[in-house]
Amino acid sequence: MRIACVHQGYELYGSDRSFAESVAALRAAFPSADIEIVLPRSGPIVQILEPHASRIVFEPLWVLRRQAITRLATIEMARLPVAVWRAWRRLRQCDLVYVNTSIVADYALAARLLPHKAVLHIHEIPEGVMRTILVALMRWSHADLIFNSNATRTAFGAAGGQRTHVVYNGVAGPPAAEPTTYDGKRPLRVLLIGRINRIKGQEVLLEAIASLPADLRSRVEVRLVGGAFESIERERALAERVETMGLSGRVSVLPFIPDPSEHYRWADIVTVPSRRPESLGRVAIEAMAYGRPPLVSAIGGLVEVVSDGETGWHVPPGDAAALAGKLKEIILRPDAWRGFVAAGRARYEKVFSEPVAAAAITAIATDKLKATMARPGRAASTRQAETRP
């Protein structure tokens, strides 16, 4: 049995970790399968993929990124036919091809020719022109579609005759929630982990902190953790913004690290103040796993992750005043949210833990493989797969 798993990234942010968890689930379900991982280049993700891969190959992928759309539509268009041919060849050679995210255009285009072998796992909520392009691409593919939230499925709309599934991302967490130590007598430790971009809302949090009265501002410590995708300029701009707003003593800007557990253990709460829709909100899930109540924008899949007033808090997206008001409440009334820790951990274990997602991904892949193996000409391959050690 041959399975290919294709991913457009190479770092260790949310979608990268979700991909690795799906690969691990496929390996556990099909221990004797030949599993080939396809990435555009080497990077931190390779280390966590190696235990589950038969091999990892690096190939150019035709990836639709918003900031590169002009280049893709012009000079990069010449290499699209070769990319689609390469994707079609892999589809033809494999029994299942699992493609992570909707922006890997060459595989979505090639899937139209062999849709019974393709599963596309969608982790983004596109907007504007990108939404039009990606919705058309997904419908063209005729592949099975997995959405990581109901919000993501709604954003893509009806898929015609395609089979669709909603599977929340499985997230690795500690064995138990970390102890809670905040009692209002020391500064509240606030954590934001995420890429530095127009979506994540780092500037909204900074505006909220800056707007707090001086006595409350002195009772807050903030860590902004993460980097910009191949853009050192954005990282510098954020650090300069902290300084110009007079927040250097309260806010630390720290680089991305593959394992953010030390930051979750440091934090009392975790903020996800996204300005635009998050397809799910992995950081909010990780926060609940560690026993750190998340304060999130009421947008996209975040409202499916966090139960307002039970496991965390919702605030309107892009509203620094509302965020500041909620922070004030959290600082002054720590006893009011102490129960959020246990409730969040219980929700994580029931809905968002790795075993729950792995079982769902495995069921979809098994069903897909059964249909593929039952097609004419696959009987011999099925017998060979069953007899492999």
How are the SSEs ordered, and which strands pair?
Layout: E1 2-6, H1 14-29, E2 34-39, H2 45-49, E3 55-58, H3 69-72, H4 80-93, E4 96-100, H5 105-111, E5 118-122, H6 128-141, E6 144-147, H7 150-156, E7 164-166, E8 188-193, H8 202-211, H9 214-217, E9 220-225, H10 232-244, E10 251-254, H11 261-266, E11 269-272, H12 282-289, E12 294-297, H13 302-305, E13 313-315, H14 320-332, H15 340-352, H16 354-373, H17 379-387
Parallel strand pairs: 1-2, 1-4, 2-3, 4-5, 5-6, 6-7, 8-9, 8-11, 9-10, 11-12, 12-13
Helix pairs in contact: 1-16, 4-5, 5-6, 8-14, 12-15, 15-16
Q: What are the main properties of this structure?
A:
single chain; 389 residues; alpha/beta; Rossmann fold; 7-stranded parallel sheet; 17 helices; 13 strands; 15% strand
Helix content: 40-55%
CATH structural architecture of the largest domain: 3-Layer(aba) Sandwich
Uncertain regions: pLDDT < 50 for 5+ in a row? 379-389
Radius of gyration computed on alpha carbons: 22 Å
Using the coordinates shown, work out and report the CATH topology of the largest domain: Rossmann fold
Q: Could you name the CATH homologous superfamily of the largest domain? A: Glycogen Phosphorylase B
Q: Name the overall outline.
A: globular
